[in-house]
Amino acid sequence: MDILSGVSEFFGLDIGTSSIRIVQLRGTGAVKTLDRYGSAPVAGAVAMSDSKADQQKLAQAIVQLCKQAGITTKNVAVGIPSNRVFTTVVDMEKLSQSELAKTIRYQADSFIPTPLAESKIDWALLGDSPKDPTKVEVLLSSVNNTYIESRLDMLENAGFNVIAFEPDTFAVVRSIVAPEAAAPQMVLDVGARSSDLIVVVNGAPRLSRSIPVGSEAIIRSAVAGLGVDAAQATQFVYKFGVSRDKLEGRVYNAIINVVDNLVAEIEKSIKFFQGRYPSLKLERVIATGGASTLPEFPLYVANKFGVNVEIGNAWRNVSFPASRQNELLSISNHFAVACGLAERKA
Ligand SMILES: Nc1ncnc2c1ncn2[C@@H]1O[C@H](COP(=O)(O)OP(=O)(O)OP(=O)(O)O)[C@@H](O)[C@H]1O
Ligand SMILES: [Mg+2]
Fold first, then answer.
1. How far is the CA of 149 from the centre of ligand 2 (A)?
2. Residues 95-135: pLDDT tens digits?
3. CB–CB of 182/198 below 8 Å?
4. Residue whose CA is closest, atom 2 of ligand 1?
5. What's the CATH number for 209-309?
6. Distances, alpha carbon 344 to alpha carbons 47, 91, 162, in Å
7. Is the pTM of this model over 0.90?
8. Domain segments of the chain: what residues?
9. Class of 84-144 per CATH?
């Protein structure tokens, strides 16, 4: 029981553009037990919309899903999609914690793109700067107040008690990256609308990008290139992926340009990362999200960059009965954000 925060139980909520997902864990030790989980499809328009009617639909869907999954608490930790968060790493003078906090408040305006008065700012000290040993690296993130307030309204009106908002990118790192990994790891969450890319060193994000390419763009490209409808295109894409020798390479040819847009952004990020941290070498890419399971996609990325690419396991830090293994692994790539939120220390 977490007496300090007064919150003993809560669940993680990922409002994705294609589905909402919830996870509740149980127990107090280092490894918690998976207690409840579930997902329900939502239309992208509803999940992303700021309109009152859509927010109400979304709230109803969340209430319904909690009931169905048997969630036992109203306390919830909620993910913030990466296109609503601005994250950056800045070098600052070495100062005491309280002086640093003051300096960040004072200087934040020059680091973030949105007006300070309209933004909620968070920061974390990462360690010494790789560029200048007299300075420290600080991870800064900012979120638009209006966005947070409207999500808060929606959830409170539905009877929930929001204990935390956290960027999806931080949650996904918690669930799928081994905390003991000292070498840089890249997380790639290939979602429906967009993909998140995060480079993690010693458990902390050093670089984070949202790339506006995901499974929807890949399917659209397959529809156009193959001349079939969306349902068929989806079948083809998830059956053949970026394999050149299946179906005479027709699926490959139809989608490779879109996949390469994503790959080009990965390349830029690797270059940027290596420019800032020349002594570190990216060890592996851990892929998750719906489109991470495109056949041969991990291999394609691995060959491009000469790094290991593996599919992340959203449940790596939680225990569950062996009888659930197959079911859970088959949905693992959709649950990394929700599970990471549920793994928060309340
Ligand atoms: N085998 C499959 N067959 C059909 N579609 C699939 C398959 N696997 C994944 N998908 C697609 O994956 C997408 C969902 O991916 P994901 O769970 O990462 O999205 P999301 O989190 O809702 O999106 P975002 O992170 O962009 O908000 C859906 O559009 C779904 O159609
Ligand atoms: Mg997602």
1. 21
2. 998 999 999 988 988 988 888 889 999 999 999 999 999 99
3. no
4. 238
5. 3.30.420.40
6. 23, 27, 13
7. yes
8. 11-83+145-176+313-342, 84-144, 209-309
9. alpha beta
